[in-house]
Amino acid sequence: MRILLFCLAVLFGTHIHAQSPSPWTEADAARYARERTDSTLWDMPRLAEDLSFSFDSLEVVPPLVNLASPVPEYDWGYVSSRLTSLDLAGRRINGVTYAYAYDEYRPAPTDDSLAYYYTYFTIYVLSDSVHLDQRMSSVISRNYPHYLAAGKQVTEIGDVSYVQLSLAAGANLALVARQYFDLHQGRTILVAPLRDGSLRFLQLMASPEWLRSGQAGDAYNAGMIEDFERTLEADPQVIDFFTQPGSL
Predict the structure, then answer these.
(1) Mind listing the pLDDT tens digit for each residue in 154-170?
(2) Is the C-alpha dihedral spanning 9, 147, 180, 201 positive or negative?
(3) Does the record bear Signal in its keywords (predicted)?
(4) Which residues pair with 94 in a beta bridge?
């Protein structure tokens, strides 16, 4: 099975307290830009760690994140990236869901004190049986307080690559192939390659929502993702989308 799930981020954290989100200001943006070019602030041990990882031997290379660059030291950047799949009409459809920890720029829920991660992007890509397991996924916290996720699914008609950005100012967007999505209009994207060489998309408001951290949250998170999968598998528009005429 040729799958890579790669994270340049801190995957687990300790308990954090709910707080109101802080606004990302123009002054914050200016400071962020200055710090990225100030070599006295660069975290060189972290750069050395990034450079020690090579993507050259991977069968499925990432669309963006294979070259490292120095960034200032930071002590946050908690992410949760999970593989998921749908079983529809006797076929498996692979997906990935990306969630980021709440922080001073990302509001915490008021109804779940154990919530830690919020799902910002989920994508499912239909592929043929030959290329089904040829995929990769990465999520990067090196731009914190912004996050970057990227991935690729190989298909019979070509690679379906995507990039997702969650910005501290609140923007949540994705590029899938060359199609732009405002994820505030739906954080789940379905992709169906057609045999004529084109792609079809379906954007859904449904999402796995909040997840929890650590081993204590594993069962809860697994149940949340499974419930989400079953919901999509029973949705007539999802079934029609992935079984539309001309699809792989």
Answers:
(1) 999 999 999 999 999 99
(2) positive
(3) yes
(4) 85, 125
